[in-house]
Write a structure and sequence with these properties.
Elements lengths: L1 H15 L7 H19 L16 H4 L5 H41 L5 E3 L5 E3 L7 E7 L6 H19 L5 E7 L7 H9 L6 E3 L3 H10 L4 E3 L9 E3 L3 E4 L5 E5 L5 H14 L3
Parallel strand pairs: 3-4, 4-5
Antiparallel strand pairs: 1-2, 3-8, 6-7, 8-9
Length: 271
């Protein structure tokens, strides 16, 4: 009877009481309390075995979405992709720089000129239209550097002639010493290096003009008994069949390297 009244009273209180945090635990625990009281009243000596609700295990929390193996593979793949992107960016940058140099070279180096050859015939840059031209600026009284460079140029000419027709490639020697380098003297000088090497000279103003257009520095040193050395830029210029600047070669370039570069440019050139 007392148990019945307690059960009835408790349920009545719960129905009339709002669902607050204070009574929420009471509502969940009431069935178990009632069961405990019921068991205790029926058999006081029987042990009470109350089964509380089991807590659900959070399997989703126990499982890690990314394993160490997957993480390692992701890092390796990301590293490879990063290296590939870096390499492609480097190639693109080098290509841009190369095109930039060529563009600047075409605008800054070269131009029209008019000189005289060893037969005292007037020659201009237009006479070499349709040919590849390799130019070296020097002087006949040069003790060592000019002969070395002209010997190198002679080797390049022989190498090119083996691969291409001689009519498409013209080597030129332009003097930076117009006061001493006469057409007759240049004819003897160039013949010692190669039969196809054409020598050009001109007046002081003409040489000054062509050297300015090709960015060649030259300056005569002090004179002793009429002899002097001319300090000048040591370089070769390659012009394409349109007379446009293509490449330059310094003293550090060998005949084989120059030959290879010229042949590649000839193969890739399009009118």
């Amino acid at each position: 009877m007392a148990l019945s009244l307690l059960r009835t009273g408790t349920l009545a209180i719960m129905r009339q009481t709002p669902q607050t945090r204070l009574f929420a635990p009471l509502q969940r625990c009431t069935p178990y309390l009632l069961r405990l009281m019921s068991n205790k009243s029926s058999d006081p000596e029987k042990p009470v075995n109350v089964q509380l609700p089991k807590k659900k295990s959070n399997l989703a929390a126990d499982k890690t979405p990314i394993s160490w193996k997957n993480l390692g593979i992701s890092v390796v793949v990301f590293g490879i992709l990063l290296n590939v992107l870096w390499y492609l960016k480097k190639l693109r940058k080098e290509e841009i720089e190369k095109n930039k140099v060529l563009s600047i070279g075409k605008a800054a180096i070269g131009g029209d000129f008019e000189l005289v050859d060893t037969s005292k015939k007037v020659v201009s840059n237009k006479d070499f239209a349709g040919k590849w031209v390799l130019i070296y600026f020097g002087f006949t009284h040069c003790p060592d550097i000019c002969p070395e460079e002209l010997e190198k140029m002679a080797l390049v000419v022989d190498n090119i002639d083996k691969e291409r027709s001689a009519s498409v490639f013209q080597p030129l020697f332009i003097s930076v010493d117009p006061e001493r380098d006469t057409p007759e003297l240049i004819a003897k000088y160039t013949a010692d290096f190669h039969k196809r090497l054409m020598g050009l000279t001109g007046t002081v103003d003409q040489i000054k003009d062509v050297c300015k257009k090709y960015r060649i520095y030259y300056s005569a040193g002090p004179k002793e008994d009429g002899d002097y050395i001319v300090d000048h830029t040591i370089i070769m210029y390659l012009l394409n069949p349109k007379g446009e600047f293509q490449q330059y070669y310094g003293r550090n370039k060998t005949a084989a390297e120059i030959t290879k570069d010229v042949l590649v440019r000839m193969a890739m050139y399009k009118e």
